[in-house]
Design brief:
single chain; alpha/beta; TIM Barrel; three-stranded parallel beta sheet; 39% helix; 10% strand; globular; peptidoglycan synthesis; Beta-hexosaminidase; Glyco_hydro_3_N
Length: 326
């Protein structure tokens, strides 16, 4: 999964999108002007790809909402604790609006438990209480699914207990496996049991458990996630350009180790040269199981944006979320 620089595609980006190792494009705020423009950009991305491609975005709400003008402004996840009945409608609204412009999925919901120390997670978490975070994130996912969107839980096995930001450095979480199981794994376990389609591991090291950051750890991905929790969906690496990934080597090495650990799709964002290195360095492989997992991430839009905005459901829910949560 790679990114593009602006509001339209360059010729070089079209060629990169059609590389046999490209499987998805993630969009950022810089790629968004208004719903019409982003629909055109997504159509151009699909046209540049000689085959299937997935389109993703981070549209959690709060401070992580890449598309704002022309979209319902969603609150941070922590706000739903005051109005638990709004979590499912908000998940539907977020997903329906994205699907209507051609996005397949948003990297949501955040399943991290807020432990009061992490500025990068903070109010992106549904709650400090694992049971409430589990309930609210489950409702939010149900709303996403009802709109036709698969969900991706992040950041496995939990990013909420470290103060440092893995975009800027490599956080260390000194808790043991029992402590993490008792608290942080609760929402992951519940949503996996309910059929969660995707998971993104954290660029965090848990040295009492394994010396590698979770996204590069066969223990976390294969032993705990796949075997113990029986997760059979897609594992997305977190962005390999983040400083939390730098400890394991250069970009081709990061990608190789993430794949070896069990990641199905590798993210390389905000560094076009690094993305090219990874595209060229990784062997082109065909893996039927991986392709089936990724196929579950494909969006199932129910209507175009103009139709969506005429529906009574959208009009009611959009005003409900805005009036109750802002």
């Amino acid at each position: 999964m790679l990114d593009v620089a602006g509001l339209t595609l360059t010729q070089a980006e079209k060629e990169k999108i059609n590389h046999p190792n490209t499987g998805a494009v993630i969009l950022f705020s810089r790629n968004y002007q208004d719903p019409e423009q982003v629909t055109g950009l997504i159509n151009a991305i699909r046209a540049a790809r000689n085959g299937d491609i997935l389109i993703a975005v981070d549209q959690e709400g709060g401070r992580v909402q890449r598309f704002q003008q022309g979209f319902t402004r969603l609150p941070p996840a922590s706000r739903y604790a005051q109005n638990p009945e709004l979590a499912e409608p908000a998940g539907w609204l977020m997903a329906a609006e994205l699907l209507a412009v051609g996005v397949d999925f948003s990297f949501a919901p955040v399943l991290d438990i807020d432990c009061g120390v992490s500025e990068i997670i903070g109010n992106r978490s549904f709650s400090t209480d694992p049971a409430l975070a589990t309930q609210l994130s489950s409702s939010f996912r149900k709303g996403m699914n009802a709109a036709g969107m698969a969900a991706t839980g992040k950041h496995f096995p939990g990013h909420g207990a470290v103060a440092l930001d893995s975009h800027l450095t490599l956080p260390i979480d000194e808790r043991d496996l029992d402590a993490i199981r008792a608290k942080d794994l609760m929402p992951f376990k519940q949503l996996i049991d309910e059929g969660l389609e995707g998971i993104m591991p954290a660029h965090v090291v848990y040295p009492q458990v394994d010396p590698n950051p979770a996204g590069f750890s066969p223990f976390w991905i294969q032993q705990i996630l796949r075997r113990e929790l029986n997760f059979n969906g897609t594992v997305f690496s977190d962005d390999l350009s983040m400083e939390g990934a730098a400890s394991v080597g250069d970009f081709p090495e990061r990608a190789r180790l993430a794949q070896l650990a069990g990641c199905d799709m590798i993210l390389v964002c905000n560094n076009p040269a690094a993305a090219e290195q990874v595209l060229e360095a990784l062997p082109v492989t065909h893996d039927l199981v991986r392709e089936q997992r990724l196929e579950r991430m494909r969006g199932k839009p129910q209507m175009k944006r103009e139709q969506l905005m005429l529906t009574e459901k959208w009009q009611q829910l959009s005003s409900l979320i805005i009036n109750h949560t802002l």
